[in-house]
Amino acid sequence: MSKYSIMLGSVKKMEDDLLGRLRAEVAGKNDDLSPEETAALDARVFNFANNDMSEAEKTGYSNYSYWGSTFRIFMKNKLAVATLFIIVIMLGFSIVRPYLPGQRDPARANDHPVTGMPYSNQPPSREYWFGTNRIGQDLWARIWSGTSTSLFIGFSVALVTSAVGIFVGILWGYVRKLDFLFTELYNILDNIPTTIVLILAAYVLNPSVQTIILAMCFTGWIGAARLIRNLVIIIRDQEFNIASRCLGTNLFRVMIKNLLPYLISVIMLRMALTIPGAIGSEIYLTYIGLGVPLNTPSLGNLLNEGRSVMMSPNLRYQLYAPVVIIGILTISFYLMGNAFADAADPKNHV
């Protein structure tokens, strides 16, 4: 037997002896004391526990915030924060640029004040930072105006397809009675090529930004709905969802509180990839002549104009700027979407 065991045994014996003597003393005096003296003696000898309901409620309280935790994890990724900053700067500048002093109209041709001839195909200079095109339009103004148009298309398509895809996907995966209906609808729409839908929409409707957004949204939600449906099926019969159904929780609350937090990471990643994908579709439609009208600047129009003069070494500057802008946007959205998806994943929260 170790010395620590002997010491613990001695302390235990002393405690038992002292407690026994105290109890004997209290028991012997209780017969001769008044109730008031007994209460005072008990208060001096014993520590009575008090029930405090407010303190009991605090034991089950947690200051955890899902979005706060997501934001803290995201901010630790310096590369993702840098790409988010780049996207915000580009989006903000493309919106406020027309209201800044000294900015030119992207649709107006700039002519020489004396000769009246257009400043056509002028290389980049202090006056025209990105140069001019064949009719003398300022490429600096057209680049930022086209960036605003293409980002508007991308964000609109991403928001609409994500909202519809989330709603349909959750219903498709959670409500078993709707599985057959949505499965047949998916099989029909998924077999229609997206290119055919875009071309038909451009022929039936007038070519415009609204037409492109409508055509992309017509079948764009199908992939998101299918992916979310598969994820919902995985977590549909877990314990917390079964408990919610047993308690009579309505479907909308189950969708918001139980299912959506587990889908946020996938949704954000898909939205981040949908935006450059929509910009790419707009570029493709412009390439085949069914995109945004030429009088509306867009990255697709600018890229198509630069492609037409790329064989002339002195005019290739018209292709460089839109290619660089598209590359920056695509890479930034990809890196930011991946980082935010990891940050929003509940498995990464402590």
Q: What value does the average pLDDT take?
A: 78
- What's the CATH first level? Mainly Alpha
Helix run count: 13
Cα gyration radius (Å): 35 Å
Helix/sheet category: mainly alpha
End-to-end distance, in Å?
44 Å
- Portion of residues in beta strands equals under 5%
Overall form: elongated
* Number of extended strands: 0
Q: Any idea what the CATH superfamily is called?
A: MetI-like
Low-confidence stretches: none
State the helical fraction. 55-70%
CATH level-3 fold name: MetI-like fold
Largest sheet, in brief, is:
none
Q: What count of domains describes the coordinates?
A: 1
Describe the structure.
The protein is elongated, with a radius of gyration of 35 Å. The longest helix has 37 residues, at 251-287. It has one domain: MetI-like fold. It has 13 helices and no strands. Helix 4 (66-75) crosses helix 13 (317-344), helix 6 runs antiparallel to helix 11 (251-287) and helix 12 runs antiparallel to helix 13. It has 350 residues and is mostly helical. It has helices at 3-29, 35-45, 53-58, 66-75, 78-96, 139-174, 179-190, 194-204, 209-235, 239-246, 251-287, 299-308, 317-344. It is 69% helix and 0% strand.
